[in-house]
Amino acid sequence: MTVTENPDASIADTPTPTVDLADLPPAVEQFRWHLGSVLFGFFGASFFDQVALVPVAAAVDRTGRFAENFVDRGLRSFSAEQLVLWGDERTRHTFADRLKFLHREVRGTGRDDFAETRYSALDPTLWNWIAMSAIMGYLNTFTACTGIELSPEEEELAYAVALERLGILSLPGKSAQLPPTLADARRWYDSVVDERLQPNPFLDAVTEQLTRLPLPTIGLPPLVRIALTPPWLMIRPLAGHVVKVCSFSVMHPGVRELTSVRLGRREQWEFRIYQRLLQTAWRRLPRRIVLTPMAYHEYRRERLAQTYHSIQLESFAPECPV
């Protein structure tokens, strides 16, 4: 298994590390499909590390979309990731370029508690922090979701797989690129946690709202949403609690310390149960259920390609010499 850099890429180009997906170790192949796992939703609040960076919190707060329905925003973010992770090459690059273009508008000064905070989404530190939050999120949840432990070499390769997919989101310029190795990524992530992250009102608010998750509007017709509202109001405290326990159990300790969440013995015991359930689901349930639609489409495409390949001849030479 090799990872190589594109020799034709200029400094201003997005780096395009090439990963041979046909030659991945079994554990790393499982990590690759984890990038398209719906089970990752149980760890959605692990992305709260993003808004522990105050300019990011100011920018997200300014849009008002979290206050309106932050589950909808989470669904949009997750679907955007899936387009970049699992789309064909044209879809991936077109959508990545569109994201960068649209984020040019995300700049200015915050409001209320962030009135003194200036932000620009295309600031390389802020932009890369969002990308690294996603990559670290997938790495930190892999064992909890699947029960598979990665060796240090496999972890490095898993990082390369995630970087190969999400690296197209990198901003132009050599200094704006994502860290090339997992060791570099961890050092960079830890330095941002230690030097840049701060407790802030927005982080407090979204953490508190976890047990009051709003019913999403995306994909739900108004009448269906009205019908689902009463049962949702009953189950959302439990659903939010499960997400909170799972998310904060895998969160970087330095980020968790910035919140009011403290995990005691009861929560640690709960998390062991949730892990067992998730790992059983990963092993036993059909891929159609545990993978997102785009990831499952790629899964089926690859399996069909293997089937067609298996009936091909190894040689076109005559079977019996004339």
From TrEMBL:
InterPro entries reported for this sequence: MPAB/Lcp_cat_dom (IPR018713)
Pfam families: MPAB_Lcp_cat (PF09995)
Gene Ontology MF, one: oxidoreductase activity
Domain ER-bound oxygenase mpaB/mpaB'/Rubber oxygenase catalytic residues, every copy: 36-279
Protein name: ER-bound oxygenase mpaB/mpaB'/Rubber oxygenase catalytic domain-containing protein
Native source species: Gordonia namibiensis NBRC 108229
